[in-house]
């Protein structure tokens, strides 16, 4: 697996994961993109900690440093129900994929996507994600990574990709 190691997050890493997400949210805000501002105020801290406890959250390390994180829901959460409007029992849902700003443009995002497609164990056929429709760079990234745009709902692009 290249120069990054991906593994399940441990409960004692909760605050470090929240800090990484907040650092990324601050960077996004500084780029003038309206996404993840609620993370800056601790808006999802409890949910983040619960996901770690339920073994849904992963961390990406480079040597000993945590450089990225993501969460995979095995079924829709409240947000997915709001955005997707219909439930696919045959999909997992990718949330809070975040790369530490100092590691952006180093292939970390590509490596996480590749890992999910090849290493993540599930009986589901697809994985889905959404992002703010106005975030052009992020939309381009997901399209380059082979995600199919299934439409826009409530100002969010909805993407789906086949798991291998």
From TrEMBL:
Q: Name one Pfam family in it.
A: Acetyltransf_1
* Residue spans crossing the bilayer: none
| Record-linked InterPro entries | Acyl_CoA_acyltransferase (IPR016181), GNAT_dom (IPR000182)
What protein does this entry describe? GNAT family N-acetyltransferase
Record SUPFAM superfamilies: Acyl-CoA N-acyltransferases (Nat)
The organism is: Heyndrickxia oleronia
- One MF annotation (Gene Ontology) recorded for this entry: acyltransferase activity, transferring groups other than amino-acyl groups
Domain annotation N-acetyltransferase: ranges? 4-164
| CDD domains assigned | NAT_SF
């Amino acid at each position: 697996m290249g120069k990054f190691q991906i593994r399940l997050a441990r409960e004692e890493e909760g605050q470090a994961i929240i800090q990484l997400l907040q650092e990324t949210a601050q960077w996004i805000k500084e780029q003038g993109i309206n996404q993840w501002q609620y993370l800056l105020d601790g808006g999802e801290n409890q949910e983040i900690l619960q996901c770690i406890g339920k073994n849904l959250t992963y961390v990406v390390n480079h040597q000993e440093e945590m450089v990225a994180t993501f969460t995979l829901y095995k079924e829709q959460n409240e947000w997915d129900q709001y955005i997707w409007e219909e439930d696919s029992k045959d999909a997992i849902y990718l949330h809070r994929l975040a790369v530490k700003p100092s590691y952006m443009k180093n292939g970390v995002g590509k490596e996480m996507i590749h890992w999910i497609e090849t290493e993540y164990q599930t009986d589901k056929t697809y994985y889905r994600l959404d992002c703010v429709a106005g975030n052009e760079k992020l939309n381009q990234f997901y399209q380059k990574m082979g995600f199919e745009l299934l439409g826009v709902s409530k100002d969010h692009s909805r993407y789906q990709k086949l798991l291998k």
